[in-house]
Amino acid sequence: MTVEQEVEGLREELRGHEHLYYVMDAPVLTDAQYDGLMNRLKVLEEAHPELVTEDSPTQRVGGKPADGFEKVAHSRRMLSLDNAYDEADLKAWDLRVKGSLASGEEPRYTCELKLDGLSLALHYVDGKLVRGLTRGDGTTGEDVSSNVRTVKSIPLVLSAKVLKAAGLPGSFEIRGECVMPQGAFKKLNEEREAAGQAPAANPRNAAAGTIRMVEPSVVARRRLDFYAYFLLDTQGEMLLGSQEEALAALGKLGMRVNPRVATVGSIEEVWAFCQEAEPLRDTLGFEIDGIVIKVDAAAQQRRLGMTGKAPRWAIAYKFAARAAVTRLNGVEFGVGRTGKVTPVAMLEPVLIGGTTVKRATLHNPDEIARLGVRIGDTVSVERGGDVIPKITGVVTAAGDGKDIELPVDCPVCGRPLVKEEGEVDLRCVNASCPARLREELRFFGSRRVMNIEGLGEVMVAQLLGQKIDEAEEEDGAPVLVAEPLVRSIADLYRLTKAQLMAFERTGDKSATTLLEQIERSKQAPLARVLLGLGIRFVGERTAGLLAAQFGGIDGLMDATVDELTKVNEVGPKVAEAVYEFFQEEKNRALVRDLQGLGLTMRAEKKVTTEQLAGLTFVITGTLPTLTREAAKERIEAAGGKVAGTVSKKTSYLVAGEEAGSKLEKAEALGVKVVDEAGLLGLLEVVDIEGGGGV
Ligand code: IVH
């Protein structure tokens, strides 16, 4: 085999696996195996630069555009849609459509989920992705090709074979929606918050912001997905005879397409589809805000044409917003882990999408000013997928409304609040403020940090000698009812069983479990401890990079700003913050204290076996002892892969209590089903055969 052949063979293989992973959610390789193939390709390409092609899987992350994004005209305007809000609106639209078509001509309608992201136009020439454009003003978009290339559900190249199977020429335009899955959004916001940055408001904004970032390598690290919904020729006209055929062809090209579609013959069926689809909102893993209905036949679409800015042949049925109107009863100020003071709106309780909402965030003083909101006003409140409710505007101002007074002193410890130059937030800078300590401990014990089970809200309050019940919580400030047992995270490691059992609500069993969990956390890898220390701007990723670079805490504590800046991706702002943190004697003392108490704080060596290599698991329902996260970690550590949806490629479904549709699907497909014990059994085999025998 020549080098050329090996390189091309590797590319084909990698493309196939990217498709399985990012489009089908059904990977067959472990990450390590995938990386192995990718590394081999990189090595060959480095040795033979003349063989590098733009569509190689190694080239997803290329250079950034020199000066901003170029503006490029669309082949045909990217239109928006008229909205329908109920059955009557849909029926009226149906009549308009029929009125414009020849008499007796019955339109068929294709119904698709309306994904809440941003639309993109992708241009393929001779099977190669040459350009990706944002919608822009509809007529001209921005060329965001360098970022679009990093989205792994978008193929960089479509082989002659694939094009033939889909019955398509090599050059066309694909339009569709780019979304950030809720999981990726949540992770992004957790990282932003851990790093002291303001969270993104919703997945749509996060996706739109990401696709317009100047640094493709950062874009590549965030998971974005693309769902294709239009297939156009190079002139911007429908390439095939109907939308139904277009969606089928897009699927054959290896694009992700809308997971729920139906082409139906009447508006009654359209309405039924809308009603069935609405409850899916909470199960899809990405946000949808309605249903798009399109006249299916291209010829009919052409005849119907468009009005001002929207086509007559399509309409968007919008789900009821997850919003409500209620009265602002008051504002309290919460103090977070980093001392950030957040105004929290106390609302007249109101039901939004099945949840009673009593509080909503007002973000910061600037936001209060922007909204012009006063106590007593009637306000609109919105609740998005994973986001805390927020106030979006004043509906009616109260005649006797009261201004929201900003606190001068910390509502919890009473020390003066600080607002730094160029920052929007008020901050309590007292490191021993009880509210800060409470949040710090809860963060330290949380799953993503030290994963200390049992260190929940009530336990933390007891440890701090604070009393929390409904009444006090409404007041915000914790009331001290006992001498605190814990004054810093190090004190956690000095707790005794007798102390814990003295608490009203803690029995022998929970005291023992908590102590075991605390003991276990001493082995937590350095990255987690760094995250738990709450150094400004150090989120999960930065903590991981620092840990990998320095290997242990000692080197890191003594690193100079220069040395810190040399760490890949660590900029001067972060380096400065880390340096300053470890210059403070009290922080150094804390680290030494933790070392003395037995925390190992060493960088993680990934011990993985390959026993479950090639096996794909799907986890569903509630497992009796393992959290899903833990089960996933165990499977991955043994070389297995965890996917989100069941397919024929799934090796095992791990089903816990209340397993629903996934179990049904697995059974229908003949996929093996195991319970937690079964999974542990599989892992044990690995432990003995793979990791054991030392
Ligand atoms: S069709 C002229 N199909 O919704 C047709 N749009 O409110 C316009 N969207 O700009 C697009 N899912 O960003 C279409 N399955 C889908 C969609 C969809 C989401 C977005 C798209 C569009 C907006 C219109």
Tally the beta strands.
24
* Spans of at least 5 consecutive residues with low confidence: 470-476, 685-694
Helix tally?
A: 27
Oligomer: single chain
Can you walk me through this structure?
With 694 residues, the protein is an alpha+beta fold. The chain is 38% helix and 19% strand. The strands form 6 sheets. Strands 13, 14, 15, 16, 17 and 18 form a 6-stranded antiparallel beta sheet that branches. Strands 2-12-11-3-10 form a 5-stranded mixed beta sheet. Strands 5-4-7-8-9 form a 5-stranded mixed beta sheet. Helix 1 (3-23) runs antiparallel to helix 2, helix 5 (160-166) packs antiparallel against helix 9 (243-252) and helix 19 packs across helix 20. The two termini are 41 Å apart. Bound molecules: 2-(butylsulfanyl)adenosine (IVH). The site of 2-(butylsulfanyl)adenosine has 14 residues, from strand 3 and strand 12. Residues 79-81, 112, 114-115, 119, 177, 229, 258, 292, 311, 314, 316 line the site of 2-(butylsulfanyl)adenosine.
Quick tags:
binds 2-(butylsulfanyl)adenosine, 27 helices, 694 residues, disordered C terminus, five-stranded mixed sheet, six-stranded antiparallel sheet, alpha+beta, 24 strands
